[in-house]
């Protein structure tokens, strides 16, 4: 019996602006090749003004999912059918799975950090220090709290931005996180 050749790989990609600066395409394409997955990853320049059309196009073309990068991580939430717990708390989505025309939003930034950390130490019951108060730090704080850390210390250059993350973190973790201004 002859092998059937399929010239239509499953599609994934990233909606970002600018997309040309996003190296994820190289990493994902290499992973697809390594694991012999019949898939492609495409960087697409899309900002918030065209995000709805891009999502409609991805669904119409049969994409199985996409990443969102700056400036679309918050904007995409209005188009999501179901948000994962961490994405709901973080208020940002960087990974969308398209399953039976349903959009499932996830934030994987903090999960990747925790997975890496757990190769060295189990964070449960430990004290954690997070440097910075941006989006990735927010995601990491959420996942640290889910992992059962005892305390989170936020260290940031700007007191104002550090306080925003600190105040926000108190809603998901007890005892209160500690803010250290540089």
Structural class: alpha/beta
Alpha-carbon distance between the two ends: 68 Å
Whole-number mean pLDDT: 90
CATH homologous superfamily designation of the largest domain: Leucine Dehydrogenase, chain A, domain 1
In terms of per-residue confidence, which ranges show pLDDT below 50 for 5 or more consecutive residues?
A: none
Q: Indicate the overall shape.
A: globular
CATH architecture of the largest domain: 3-Layer(aba) Sandwich
Q: How does the major sheet shape up? A: 6 strands, mixed
Rg over alpha carbons:
19 Å
Total of helices: 6
DSSP, total strands: 9
Please indicate the percent range of residues in DSSP E strands (runs of 2 or more): 15-25%
Q: What is the strand arrangement across the widest sheet?
A: 2-1-3-5-6-4
Number of domain units: 2
- Helix fraction? 25-40%
Taken in chain order, the helices and strands follow as: EHEHEEHEEHEHEHE
CATH class of the largest domain: Alpha Beta
Annotated CATH topology of the largest domain: Rossmann fold
Please tell me about this protein's structure.
The chain is an alpha/beta fold and 182 residues long. It folds into two domains: 98 residues, Leucine Dehydrogenase, chain A, domain 1 (Rossmann fold, 3-Layer(aba) Sandwich), CATH 3.40.50.10860; 72 residues, Rossmann fold. Helices cover 32% and strands 25% of the residues. The chain is built from six helices and nine strands. A six-stranded mixed β-sheet has the order 2-1-3-5-6-4, with helices on both faces. A hairpin with a 2-residue loop joins strand 5 and strand 6. The protein is globular and about 60 Å long. The chain starts with 9 loop residues before the first strand and ends with a strand. The relative contact order is 0.11. The mean pLDDT is 90.
């Amino acid at each position: 019996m002859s092998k059937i050749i399929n010239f239509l790989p499953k599609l994934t990609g990233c909606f970002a602006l600018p997309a040309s600066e996003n190296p994820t395409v190289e990493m994902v394409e290499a992973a697809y090749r390594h694991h012999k997955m019949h898939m492609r990853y495409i960087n697409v320049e899309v900002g918030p003004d065209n995000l709805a059309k891009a999502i409609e196009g991805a669904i119409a073309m049969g994409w199985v999912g996409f990443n969102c990068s700056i400036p679309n991580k918050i904007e995409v939430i209005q188009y999501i059918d179901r948000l994962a717990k961490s994405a709901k708390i973080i208020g940002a989505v960087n990974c969308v799975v398209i399953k039976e025309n349903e959009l499932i939003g996830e934030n994987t930034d903090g999960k990747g950090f925790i997975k890496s950390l757990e190769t060295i130490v189990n964070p449960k019951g430990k004290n954690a220090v997070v440097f910075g108060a941006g989006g990735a730090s927010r995601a990491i704080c959420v996942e640290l709290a889910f992992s059962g850390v005892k305390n989170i210390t936020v260290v940031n250059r700007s007191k104002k931005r550090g306080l925003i993350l600190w105040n926000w973190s108190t809603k998901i973790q007890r005892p209160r996180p500690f803010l250290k201004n540089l």
